[in-house]
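Q: Please design a sequence for this.
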């Protein structure tokens, strides 16, 4: 499938997947490199610290080069139609046995932090989410799931919760998820392979279950924003 077909799929379904974006050797080198770094965030309750995040590594040259960030931005600009820059490059980990779930949500729920002051429609059209698994994913190890086509139904009704790591989160209400399914949206486990590239809309509903497997599950999470965007500090601070 060529880039034009993938972009068409992005518009219709809210996402597309490019398999084998990174080869096995590159994925292995990234994991080895990350494991030499000290995690910044740990599982909330483990007696022996289990890392689940390394912070924003957007300025890390090895990571940027390894994933071909310049080309990723260039190709994503064909979706956004505006010049982009990378504001987020995170390595996440779901620790073996205990890694917790992520609720059904849209990234737009948190736009007051990553796009403070921007109009929601502009965020939908010009902000791009990217995800690169560094391990094969499935439902047992907490692999990513999406609600296909949910990006077509706008900013969805949501509710505030405290998640399993005692963080404030916003999730789509059960009633709204019922409505999406009744409208034909399909809840789909992506079962991504290590090194695949997922590009998706800030309005696409997505979630992931707990990691019940005996192996950690690592991934890269990126976000691109318009190069000329200046956040509203008052809105950011309030959020």
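A: Design:
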């Amino acid at each position: 499938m060529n880039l034009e077909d993938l972009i068409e799929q992005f518009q219709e379904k809210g996402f597309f997947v490019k398999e084998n974006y990174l080869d096995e050797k590159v994925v292995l080198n990234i994991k080895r490199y990350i494991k030499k770094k000290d995690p910044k965030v740990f599982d909330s309750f483990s007696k022996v610290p289990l890392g689940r995040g390394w912070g924003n590594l957007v300025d890390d040259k090895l990571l940027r080069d390894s994933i071909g960030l310049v080309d990723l931005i260039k190709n994503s600009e064909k979706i956004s139609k505006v010049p982009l820059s990378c504001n987020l490059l995170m390595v996440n980990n779901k620790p073996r046995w205990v890694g917790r779930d992520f609720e059904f949500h849209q990234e737009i729920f948190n736009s007051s932090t990553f796009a403070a002051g921007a109009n929601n429609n502009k965020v939908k059209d010009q902000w791009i989410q990217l995800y690169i698994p560094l391990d094969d994913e499935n439902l047992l190890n907490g692999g990513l799931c999406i609600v296909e086509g949910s990006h077509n139904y706008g900013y969805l009704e949501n509710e505030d919760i405290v998640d399993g790591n005692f963080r404030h989160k916003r999730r789509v209400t059960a009633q709204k998820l019922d409505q999406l399914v009744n409208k034909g949206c399909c809840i789909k486990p992506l079962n991504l392979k290590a090194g695949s590239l997922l590009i998706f809309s800030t309005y696409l509903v997505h979630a992931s279950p707990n990691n019940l497997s005996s192996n950690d599950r690592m991934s890269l999470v990126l976000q691109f924003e318009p190069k000329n965007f200046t956040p509203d500090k008052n809105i950011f601070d309030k959020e």
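Q: Thanks. Anything notable?
A: The radius of gyration is 17 Å. The mean pLDDT is 96.
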